[in-house]
Amino acid sequence: MRPDTPAENVDHTAEAARLERTAGLYPEDAEALLLRAAAHLELSGDRPAATKLYDRLLSPSDTGPSGLENPSLVRALKASNLWEYDHEAEARAIIDGVRAASPRDPAPWVIVAEALEAHDELEAAHETFTEGARLLLTDVAEPPYSTHPLLYGRHRVRRMLGLSHDDWDALADTLHTMPVSLDELHDPKRVWSLGSDNPADLEAEISRLRAELGAYREALSRPFPVAMLHWPADELTELLDAYPPLAAEYPSYDDHLATIESALRELASSGTPNLGVVRGTVPSYEAFAASEGASPADPALLPQYATTLAARGRAVAWPPQRGAACWCGSEQPYAQCHGLGGPAATDR
Q: Which InterPro entries match (predicted)?
């Protein structure tokens, strides 16, 4: 989650320093933690310091870019940041590299396209949004939630360019569920209303902005989830071989998966919000046990471990977004896997 709290309400520099320290304690989460730290530095106005963090993540080392989960995302964020403090040539070069890499994650496409859009490169932004949509959404029956910003951004830029709606614009309209339509949110004439002397124009714009801000905050806000601990099959085998007393908690792998799904459904039916799944690994669990001064064979440590992983941003929201893969790692859509016969995946 990228922070969006105004600087007057939080000490972004101190928060960035805290996240850097936390990254040192949890190297396996360093990428996510340092990206959040860089975002805080950007919000504090210290963009050169943010660039240093991006460079730190991308620098060749034992845990260099080959070990990053999403190097294209880091490069896209670096490019966007560089352009904001007059390093346009370098930013453009990085953007070209991100586009050439054709990442399968929509976030880098959205970030570089929005960077182009923010600097009035509307044609290039439109090309970038379209490239990303073509790569990720061609022959896809139902766009995953993570791809919606691609379609919304493309819709917005096409409105600015005065282009007529096409099939992807129509799809964006159907996916958008806020009270104010995309056509109204992306109307270029909205900009003119900000200079109007007519109170009705300004009130209408305030209403639109509230709807837009509500959608933005809804997408960003992921309050601390109640998380269930999931062990992939190979990790569970290794865990039980090393710590046989835990076998009573996990009679079989299939039972483990069924227990997670049934527990989440029960929590959901009782009205518990913000449910999630965290994926455990034996080395991480052993390190956690050591930090707690406890034995990994103690079953009471398992829920504490799950809570700690969730606090470090490792939880995946449940149920998965409509069209997304199942939480169990099968790579099948949730609705065709553990979601069969249960509550449908929802848009958030």
A: SEC_C_motif, TPR-like_helical_dom_sf
Full pLDDT tens readout for the chain, 348 residues: 455 555 456 789 999 999 999 888 888 888 988 999 999 999 999 999 999 999 999 987 644 445 788 999 999 999 999 999 999 999 999 999 999 999 999 999 999 999 999 999 999 999 999 999 999 999 887 888 889 999 999 999 999 899 999 999 999 999 888 777 888 778 777 655 656 677 777 777 777 667 766 655 555 444 556 889 999 999 999 999 999 999 999 999 999 999 999 999 999 898 887 889 999 999 889 988 888 888 999 999 999 999 888 877 788 888 887 778 899 988 888 888 998 765 544 444
- Cβ–Cβ < 8 Å for 278, 227: yes
Angle between helices 71-84 and 88-101 (to 10 degrees): 160
Measure the CA–CA gap between 15 and 183, rounded to whole angstroms. 38
Residue 323 phi/psi, 5-degree rounding, is 90, -5
Dihedral, CA atoms, 131, 134, 135, 140, nearest 10 degrees? 160
